[in-house]
Specification:
By secondary structure, this protein is mostly beta strands. It has a single domain, classed as outer membrane lipoprotein receptor (LolB), chain A. It is built from 2 helices and 13 strands. It has helices at about 1-20, 110-115, and strands spanning about 25, 35-45, 50-60, 65-70, 75-80, 85-90, 95-100, 105, 115-125, 125-135, 140-145, 150-160, 165-175. Strands 7-6-5-4-3-2-13-12-11-10-9 form an 11-stranded antiparallel sheet. The longest helix has 19 residues, at about 1-20. The protein is globular and about 40 Å long. Residues about 5-30 have low confidence and may be disordered.
Length: about 180
């Protein structure tokens, strides 16, 4: 399904930035715990919106997180990250390891020094973010990283070469 491929691409992009530190991440002992609610929408080249999923991510002070995504077709995906152990998808009663994980944060200074830095914005009325640009194959994405929440990506706008685009939008961010 096209929405699944779009989601997977966006998820891998988020993992690249958050886990791999593509904008200058540093490892820290503790992070600011939070809960992030989001929704994802795919837009075809004509602008027709198709809801993809809603999600809830809970992050802990050790840098780990767990995210539950409820898709519009009714299925649920659970993903979790454990620093120094990995990132895992829950598959039935088992977990599938899909990559490396580490407790990493991106400072405001590091983000602004990044060659991919575009601008500052505010989301949800008061959450300060730095917007960076990332190219991946035929698509280009803007990642909105929350300064006061360890550089966590709270919004993604991914534009595809066919004119379609994917938006992961924050609904709430609380401590």
């Amino acid at each position: 399904m096209k929405s699944s491929r779009i989601f997977l691409g966006a998820t891998l992009l988020v993992l690249l930035v958050v886990v791999g530190g593509a904008v200058g991440a540093h490892t820290h002992e503790s992070q600011r715990p939070f809960t992030l609610a989001q929704h994802a929408t795919h837009y075809d080249p004509a602008g027709k919106a198709t809801p993809v999923y809603v999600s809830m991510r809970r992050s802990n002070a050790a840098g780990g997180w767990m995210e539950v995504q409820q898709y519009s077709d009714g299925h649920t995906r659970v993903t979790r990250s454990e620093p120094d152990r990995g990132v895992f998808f829950q598959q039935g009663e088992k977990d599938k390891r899909i990559g490396e994980a580490q407790a990493a944060t991106t400072t405001e200074t590091d983000l602004r020094k990044s060659p991919s830095y575009l601008r500052d914005e505010v989301v949800l009325g008061s959450v300060r973010v730095g917007v960076v640009s990332v190219k991946s194959g035929e698509s280009e994405s803007e990642l909105w990283c929350a300064y006061d929440f360890d550089g966590t990506v709270v919004k993604i706008v991914r534009r595809n070469s066919d004119g379609s685009y994917f938006v992961l939008e924050p609904d709430a961010l609380t401590e």
